[in-house]
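[step 3/7] fold_predict: job queued, chain A
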Amino acid sequence: MRILWICGSRVVGGAEHVTIQLGQLLAKRGHSIEVLCPNRTALDAALAEAGLPAHHGPIGSSLDIRAFFAIRRALRGFSPDLALVTTAPEWVWASLARDRRQRTRMVFIRYMALPLPRAVRWLANRAADAIITNTEAARRSVLIQGVVRPELVHVIHHLVRFAPRAKPPDEEDRARARASLGLPQGGRWVGFFGGLNERKGIGDVIWAVRRASAQVGEIHLLVCGRRGDKNVRPAEDWDRTLGLPGRFHCLGEIPNVQEAMTAVDAVMVATHSSLNEGSSAALHEAMACGTPVIAYATGGIPETIGPGDEAGLLCRPDDPDSLATRLAELFTNPQLAQRLATAGLARVRERHTPEALMDRYETLFSRLAG
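[step 4/7] structure written:
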């Protein structure tokens, strides 16, 4: 199959990481995949490293009509069997640019549980041959108000970028990982992989770590992900907010997320409910590393963790006090931490194994293109 991925994102977030991995796996199975993306963004380096050819155009904005012409030219020039569209403005422009005289099938992908505007969903219902979501929560957000036909929407869980560990790491494994990252030893460690973005919850995590430290003793906070832009507070400000000298460690974007997730004793996912994520790549990856997770119960996160806190501890959304309480509970109960780590590994193997999920993607894509 010839596949064109249309992505208007200017950053490499969880959705982009997942789709890049999907593209690599499709290429390994003999399919041809190329990417239409905006000019000069962080996505370029990630695509080059993955070996996915990139073409540039004025996309990424819902207000720039040039995106319509860029997508139409790409569809005509590349003549793909499938077009994968992963960003909301491009849902609109791709819907308008579709020419049904061409053979291209349109597949829209949605990884958020935040409902799109009714007009966008109406266009998608007319233009899409399939819509893929990663959780039932995201699926419900697409189907809200009955605008989209239910048979269009398919749930395929997030891919995990690496194979799950055979068993949870022990203290020596975590110490080695900290040493390899140049981090100090000692104390307990919490990982946060949302960068310095407030809506991803860094302020809530800092509050929880500071409060739990007063109960259980020395806790270090490891922050990974984008350092942010001019509208985001710098790391130094967050360090002062934590108010625990020597306990705030910001590594920014790192190539080996497994090492960082192994280095910590718990990973927190504190995305605010205003974002309403379909799920979280950090959540699946932490579980695959055998590291216990604590997360706000928003969007599709409860589905990922499972009923009854099966593979992680859920907290009231947007409530840092709840995060602090759960963190103290985890750090004072080693048996609980071990149970969650083991259950997380089992759940990832059951729901997020790349090869099994790729079979589902390939079956759907082949049926549409065939």
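[step 5/7] annotate
The domain at 2-159+353-369 is CATH 3.40.50.2000 (Rossmann fold).
The first strand starts at residue 2 and ends at 6.
exit 0
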